[in-house]
Amino acid sequence: MLPLITAILGAVLGAFTARRRRGNGFDIAQWATVWAIIGGLLGFLALLVLVRL
User: What is the pLDDT along the chain (53 residues), one digit of tens a residue?
Assistant: First the structure.
């Protein structure tokens, strides 16, 4: 559940970042995708750490 939440949060932050930089639709989609992948990976690592404790 944690990786999904962080992936969605990353996608939203990526889309806002691209929109703030005045990107077109493709820029917004690319930034949202990349940030979602990064957020999902960070959430997965956090989940692994929490399970191991």
Answer: 999 999 999 999 999 999 999 999 999 999 999 999 999 999 999 999 999 98
20/31 Cα distance (integer angstroms): 12
CB 12, CB 45: distance < 8 Å: no
| Number of Cα atoms under 13 Å in the Cβ half of residue 32 | 14
17-25: Cβ within 8 A, 24+ apart: none
Three-class HEC string of 1-53: CHHHHHHHHHHHHHHHHHHHCCCCHHHHHHHHHHHHHHHHHHHHHHHHHHHHC
